Amino acid sequence: MPELPEVETVKRELEKAVLGKKITAILVHSPKLIREPAVDKFKKGIIGASIKNILRKGKLLILELSNGKSLAIHLKMTGQLVYPGDGKKARVVFYLSDGKNLDFNDQRLFAELRLLDDWRSLKFIQGLGPEPFDLGRDAFKEMLSTKTSKIKPLLMDQTFISGIGNLYAAEALFRAKINPERRANSLSEKEKERLFKEIKDTLLEAIKYKGSSVDQYVQLTGEPGAYVKFHKVYDRQGKPCLVCKTPIKRTALGGRGTYFCPKCQK
Ligand SMILES: [Zn+2]
Fold first, then answer.
1. Which of 102, 141, 150, 263 makes the best surface tag, with the fewest CB within 10 Å?
2. How many Å is the Cα radius of gyration of the chain?
3. Nearest CA to 145 among 87, 184, 104, 182?
4. Which residue in 43, 56, 57, 59 is the catalytic one?
């Protein structure tokens, strides 16, 4: 699933490609993706408006429109935004005033598109925890010290901290040398500080390389993100740890595949 670096990449590319452009028509091939309002209202509320501002909140993209409404897009598992699109795989096509189209593709149809009067009142937004980049080190340490849950599922809990998913939780924990099954409140001061630093460094590096193309994520151009080749543990089970050569292990934790080095991560 696209996480903070992937959604941030798409956001930055959208800013360059479509900001200020008007949406002149919409074609909806898969009405299931339009969560609110009804498809007719969704189209009517967007057509004729231009894209005024683009935001990201956790893994959610928000396109603020000139008519005061906002289009909120959650890519979920396999959502893709592609510009300029060719329409071939598109579930929803946004035709723009430059004569090109912005395609929304989604192989598995889990994505969610909403047209909102006020995105701030969306329940999902109100429940979001702070982003790693909006947090100070001491605030992060304090947050961990009150939690008895295991550290990896905690980092993936969007109401605790937003933007981190399965992939970057695994990578940051490896870099911080922390076993994914540790209880959050059992981490030492040093470990918490290391984790805070590694979360931010990992996300920034991934943004630099335009995200990780696992599953279906692509950049706005349709090209893959290049960060996969820098992964240290994710999807590397059985391969030697890049630090100590012990084979990387995969276990299930909170129902998700979890990759770690049993020797480096204590
Ligand atoms: Zn190791």
1. 263
2. 20
3. 184
4. 59
